[in-house]
Amino acid sequence: MREKNSRKKKSGWISKVLNAIGTAMILIVVLLCLLLVLPKALGFQMYHVLSGSMEPTLPVGCLIYVQAGIPEEVEAEDVIAFYGSSPEDSGIITHRVVANNVVSGTFETKGDANERQDPVPVPYGNYIGRVRLMIPYMGEVLTCMSSLYGRVAAVSFVLLGVLLNLIGSRKKG
Fold first, then answer.
1. 83-102 mean pLDDT
2. More confident position, 68 or 151
3. Pair 86, 99: CB distance under 8 Å
4. Is the preceding omega at residue 119 within 30 degrees of 0, hence cis?
């Protein structure tokens, strides 16, 4: 009789651990998906910072949320995202506004870590929006999750979590 109670206690402990791990795995994927989906639904675009030109304000690897707006309303010291117009800077760039030249429809910008101001003014047509939020280290994780391999990994992680919950609930009985 004593051995049977001991097995039940051990089995109950194992099932609780399996259920906790399974639930945690599912919740992690749900939270990461919310970080991807919810901001888009609220009108934000997300970008992964790849260079150190805005360090320490925006460290490499961080996730930034950018909100579109009217270029004329941008003020000096705002951090904006824009399309680069030169061949060497053809991607998306995030720099601080030094001046907003409303008459010419351009921004003068500078990376916080750069010694000099950017040599070419940014035309309003290249403006994407203002940076509203930054989450350190999450850029790489969410970039990975939005790829095919990341989606497969996320689904596998959830399925493993469900499997652990099923095994844990069977151990109770």
1. 87
2. 68
3. no
4. no
DSSP E strands: which ranges in 75-170?
79-83, 92-101, 106-110, 122-123, 127-135
Separation of first and last alpha carbons in the chain: 17
Q: CA 83: distance to chain centroid?
A: 20
Domains and CATH numbers, the chain: 18-172 (2.10.109.10)
Q: 9 is written with which tokens?
A: 């206690």
Q: Over range 81-97, report the average pLDDT.
A: 85
- The reported pLDDT for the residue numbered 37 is 86
Q: How many CB atoms lie within 10 A of CB 134?
A: 18
Alpha-carbon distance 24 to 14, whole Å? 15
Give residue-wise pLDDT tens across range 114-141. 999 999 999 999 999 999 999 998 888 8
